[in-house]
Predict the structure.
Amino acid sequence: MDSNNNKIEKVVELLRSSKHTVVFTGAGVSVESGIPPFRGAGGLWERYDPEEVASIYGFKRNPKAFWEFAKELLVKTKAEPNKAHYAIAELEKMGIVKAVITQNIDMLHQKAGSSRVLELHGSMEYVDCLDCHTAYKWEEIEKKIEKEIPRCESCGSYYLKPRVVFFGEALPSDVLSEAMDEARKCDVFMVVGSSLVVYPAAHLPFIAKENEAKLIIINYDPTDRDEMFDVVIHGKAGDILLKIVEKLKHV
Ligand code: NAD
Ligand code: ZN
């Protein structure tokens, strides 16, 4: 696609002169790792009811439904970082990217080598028993979930809640304020793989724009917010980011 090539050149120029780029990612960055997104083609909302499986009310009614969903989202896929995660980590090593703000809970940015990752919606790293407050590492739960719905070893409760932000819960205020600071400070704000409909996360590009950052979006489908961006690339994040990194390295 010629027009994408021109846009990729423009992104390369912006990144080359940037002193502080912030990358903001959503479910789309992990699609090439085999984790389905919520919205868009093949999205989980075609098959699951978000109110049932991803809201705090649904979880309190029926934690087992959440764990069935989590199994499909995170365990069966055995996801590893993809080209997009690695390219973003590489941009940090090159001194261009100063922070990754992610809505994802899959920890794949850290696994790919990004060191400054702000997880707006928490992550699966720890799972707490809501009844007796025992904390588990995700790896322990992951092993059990293959065979059965996990329950607390200390008290038998099914109310095992990962430290992720469910619909209906507030975002961690310290992480959100750090992310807002990054959006204010950056000169380039690059969105990768987000439909930009989940608030308050989707407010961050507006903060960056108010502070005169250049805005880039790399997303498979158009979003309702495309108009506010300086460069809009529709395509697969892995292929596009890899091209960008290669061009930055070889000039
Ligand atoms: P979303 O599901 O609303 O949208 C995903 C977007 O990614 C779509 O617009 C789609 O066009 C795009 N996309 C799909 N494949 C792509 C690819 N290969 N390259 C680039 N773009 C691609 O995602 P969202 O905006 O992050 O909001 C959903 C919420 O779901 C977030 O809050 C997040 O916490 C959560 N979520 C996380 C994961 C994960 O951790 N991997 C997975 C699903 C949902
Ligand atoms: Zn317990």
Remarks:
- The first helix runs from residue 2 to 16.
- The chain has a mean pLDDT of 93.
- The radius of gyration is 19 Å.
- The chain is about 40% helix and 20% strand.
